[in-house]
Amino acid sequence: MRGVGWQMLSLSLGLVLAILNTVAPQA
Predict the structure, then answer these.
(1) Residue 26 and residue 6: Cα distance in Å, rounded?
(2) Which pLDDT score is estimated for 4?
(3) CA angle 4–9–2, rounded 5-degree value
(4) Where are the transmembrane segments (predicted)?
(5) Between these two residues, 19 and 4, which has the higher pLDDT value?
(6) Mean pLDDT of 7-25
(7) What sign results for the dihedral spanned by CA atoms 12, 13, 19, 22?
(8) pTM of the entire predicted model
(9) Using CA atoms, how far apart are residues 27 and 24, in angstroms rounded to an integer?
């Protein structure tokens, strides 16, 4: 079950990074 939690966390971090790169590509 721990693997699922880590997977969700990684997915969330990746999504946030993707959004940040899309909103502020210069940053």
Answers:
(1) 29
(2) 85
(3) 30
(4) 6-24
(5) 19
(6) 94
(7) negative
(8) 0.58
(9) 5
Contact 14, 6 (CB under 8 A): no
Residue 24 three-state SS: coil
One-letter amino acid at 16 equals V
Task: Quote the radius of gyration of the chain (alpha carbons, Å).
Answer: 12
Token code pair at residue 3: 């693997």
Instruction: Record the tokens describing residue 21, joined without a space.
Output: 């790169």
Q: How far apart are CA 8 and CA 16, in angstroms?
A: 12
Query: How many residues are recorded in the chain?
Result: 27
> Which residues, 6+ apart, have CB-to-CB distance to 20 below 8 Å?
27
